[in-house]
């Protein structure tokens, strides 16, 4: 459903990705791991239309989407949960969710009600400004906002970063329920154990290149360690 072919990305003169090939099948969960600065966020930005310097290197259902703006990518069913959440701070929880529903694909399953069923605390806090929420609750809003577009593919950037273990557990518990709707996911995650537990396949990036890929059931801890730290 999604492919990148020789994907490169740059910030001015600085090259961040050097020919990345990844695929995501319908309904699949793919984890992207790698150390700080490996290029994980840049990869997600290149898919989601935030970065647009790879016109023919990102394909969605066979169509090049690398030149599309973020809202056009969203309309095709690819939604991003960005690093740092990027909520509208002065708007309420419910208003943030409704903004996510403004680009909406068909009559899919995600509505305010189903997002509140997934994260019941958000219903209790629905009239609170986003800034009044804890970090974990804000992350739930960011996920809910992305779901409100009824995505086929959800791109999640570091959804556990900076959160307490108990909150991370709650957020990760929601992922299988999102997958039950048939959505595919790409998860960027610093916590390798968590990434391997949740994903079907993994790609490890180092310095803008893929150093390992495989099914999470078939790759060894040693191989992941070598690919992550570059001591293969
Ligand atoms: P992290 O876990 O720290 O977010 P990452 O794997 O997501 O790391 P990226 O954020 O994609 O890595 O960064 C890849 C490289 O691109 C890094 O060397 C980073 O310094 C550089 N980079 C990222 N964003 C910019 C930017 N806006 N301008 C210039 N360089 C950038």
Description:
Residues 2-232 form the ABC transporter domain. Belongs to the ABC transporter superfamily. The structure is a single chain. The protein has 232 residues and is of the alpha/beta class. The protein has a single domain, classed as P-loop containing nucleotide triphosphate hydrolases (Rossmann fold). The chain is 34% helix and 25% strand. It has nine helices and ten strands. The chain has a six-stranded mixed beta sheet, with helices on both faces. The mean pLDDT is 92. Adenosine-5'-triphosphate (ATP) binds next to strand 2 and helix 1.
Walk me through the topology.
Blueprint: E1 2-11, E2 14-24, E3 29-33, H1 40-48, E4 58-60, E5 63-64, H2 70-75, E6 78-81, H3 93-100, H4 112-118, H5 120-124, H6 135-147, E7 153-157, H7 165-179, E8 184-188, H8 192-198, E9 201-206, E10 209-215, H9 221-229
Parallel strand pairs: 3-8, 3-9, 6-7, 7-8
Antiparallel strand pairs: 1-2, 1-4, 4-5, 9-10
CATH class: Alpha Beta
Number of helices: 9
Number of strands: 10
User: What shape does the CA trace take?
Assistant: globular
Task: List the bound ligands.
Answer: adenosine-5'-triphosphate
Protein name: ABC transporter ATP-binding protein
GO molecular function: ATP binding; ATP hydrolysis activity; branched-chain amino acid transmembrane transporter activity
Domain ABC transporter: 2-232
Keywords: Amino-acid transport, ATP-binding, Nucleotide-binding, Transport
Please name the defining characteristics of this protein.
232 residues; alpha/beta; Rossmann fold; six-stranded mixed β-sheet; four-stranded antiparallel β-sheet; 9 helices; 10 strands; binds adenosine-5'-triphosphate
